[in-house]
Amino acid sequence: MLTATYTLVALSVEQASVRLSLQSFQKYMRSTLMQQNRMTLSQLEYACENLNTLYQSCHWRKTEMYLIPALRDATERADQLLDELNRLNQAALTSIRLLQDKLGALADVRDEQVSEVCDSIDTFCASLLKRLEKEEHELFGLARHAIAGETWFSIANQLMMHDKHLDEMKRSGLPPAEAAQVAARRRALPGGEVDDGQISIPGLQVLPVVNLDDAPAPPLRKPAQQASHDDAFMK
């Protein structure tokens, strides 16, 4: 079971990176936006952009692409857990859509609406963090016992191919975010084929890790139109 152990360790490293990104954005929101009485439309748009980026980085994890499909094929005992993970995912998506619905409908966001925005962001982060926790503590253990040895070799091979494609894209000069998107599309399939089809959710980006103790800047690029007047949010 060494292959299973090494594979799960590699997936845990990826989980930790996504978890840190979620916690970083959640902390910025609680320490800045929650202290404001109003926010501009550009700030709301920026919040939606951040949440979309976080969702993309969570959606295109190796756990999602390789481990979960293998576990679903291996046993029906995982169905209830997978349904619960999907509900958490849907809760995060609902939070994004609630914020997107506000775009274009408001000149600004103030008072109780700021509280609603913060609640949506907090629900989004909490839902995906809960999902990561359940994967680490429940899904991985179930997968270790349910997935056969030869399937673990296949998963490990898929992970290596994924990393190989990512390295190739980086060496070709693509920015890290675009390289990650291409690697996610080139999903290794049984038989050694590669799926280069379009991903179902556009705009995959990788959220950089931010050291909150040392760096006051926001974790993502700030839109030009808000750079001069809304430093109170996400700074």
- Anisotropy-based shape: globular
N-to-C series of helices and strands: HEHHHEHHHEE
Helix content: 55-70%
Rounded to the nearest angstrom, the distance between the terminal CA atoms is 46 Å
Low-confidence sequence ranges:
188-235
Q: What structural class do the secondary elements suggest?
A: mainly alpha
Note the main sheet.
2 strands, antiparallel
Strand order of the largest sheet: 1-2
Rg over C-alpha atoms, rounded to the nearest angstrom = 19 Å
Provide the residue-averaged pLDDT.
Answer: 76
Task: Please tally the β strands and state the result.
Answer: 4
> Count the helices. How many?
7
Q: What fraction of the residues are assigned to beta strands by DSSP?
A: under 5%
Coiled coil: 71-102
Protein name: Hemerythrin HHE cation binding domain-containing protein
Keywords: Coiled coil
Region (Disordered): 215-235
Write the layout of secondary structure elements.
Blueprint: H1 2-31, E1 38-40, H2 41-59, H3 62-74, H4 79-102, E2 108-110, H5 112-146, H6 149-171, H7 176-185, E3 187-188, E4 194-195
Antiparallel strand pairs: 1-2, 3-4
Describe this structure in words.
This protein has a domain of 159 residues. The protein is mainly α and 235 residues long. It has seven helices and four strands. α2 runs antiparallel to α4. It is globular and about 55 Å long. The longest helix is centred in the middle third of the chain and has 35 residues. It is 66% helix and 4% strand.
